[in-house]
Amino acid sequence: MIPVQNIYYMLSYAFQALQAQNYKDLATEKFHNTAELCAAILDKGISVQLKRGLGRDYLPKSESLSTLQGKLSISESIKTQTLLKKQMICTYDEFSTNIQFNQIIKSTMLLLLKANVTNTRKKRLRNLLLFFSDVNEINLRFVNWNQHYNRSNQSYQMLIGICYLVYNGLLQTQTDGTTRIMDFFDEQHMCHLYEKFLLEYYRKEHPELSANASQIIWQLDDSASQLLPKMQTDIMLSQGNNILIIDAKYYSHMTQQQYGTNTLHSNNLYQIFTYVKNKDFELRELEHTVSGMLLYAQTDADVIPNNTYQMSGNQISVRALNLNQDFSGIAHTLDDIIQNSFNK
């Protein structure tokens, strides 16, 4: 079980905005579950956004008016018989806060009010909802979460990211089609958070390295590449032509059982080996080293992998990162990986 405080640190790296001064006190606050943590982050973040001002945009609005405004809709005026009241249906653009970003935030706050969150936090959320009185609630199931951000709406990026985690972590559809509230992130979404945390940790804490989630090109004997899958790395760390490819794995079981014996997940090992050998061949004309690592989030399993293999001229390591410890210990392990890989 990962302490909620460590999930906060993981979120802090995944969303760099959480390392700003406004959120510093959350690092010392104790949360009894992830729903409470997300509610606290949104509480802070929405308060900051309100000081900036809620985002607005021009939205079309139609209503019955006694004076002409915008575009007159004659057919609607006749259909609704507003002319009998000496009024007309007019359509015009209104500079409104009822934009999708604000709708997502309002709907997420309403969802959190049904979750396992303290009454104090719920009261704060209800107070914030007063500022969203002109914003419509929407069904989060139909939201396109791949939003585009620019300088005018950049402040919403972290807020929408937290809303996404809340929606996916707090809702679960049951077999009868109804929905129940949960108070934890499922394995799939923790896996995405784990990957993002590792990448952003290395970007921030090790600026001497280049840290990216780069694609690797298949090294083919001809140009026939149809139907080949993309080789998308989780983390590629490089210093010159010295490269470490990390595949982040978040499973309930770090090993598999074969004939009563624990072994590494074969697909994971095949995958990292393929990544390393293709990258190695790509740099064959240069002096270089390419190594790979499977970095599992440690579970309470009896077998904890900590192995290094020399495979066809390349080093492949398998490590476990214990997320159930003080965060300083997590940081030490991640820093140790860099020390062993690049500062030999």
From TrEMBL:
GO biological process: DNA restriction-modification system
Superkingdom per UniProt: Bacteria
InterPro entries membership: McrC, McrC_bac
Alphabetic keyword roster: Endonuclease, Hydrolase, Nuclease
Protein name as catalogued: 5-methylcytosine-specific restriction endonuclease system specificity protein McrC
E.C. number: 3.1.21.-
Signal sequence segment: none
GO-annotated molecular function: endonuclease activity; hydrolase activity
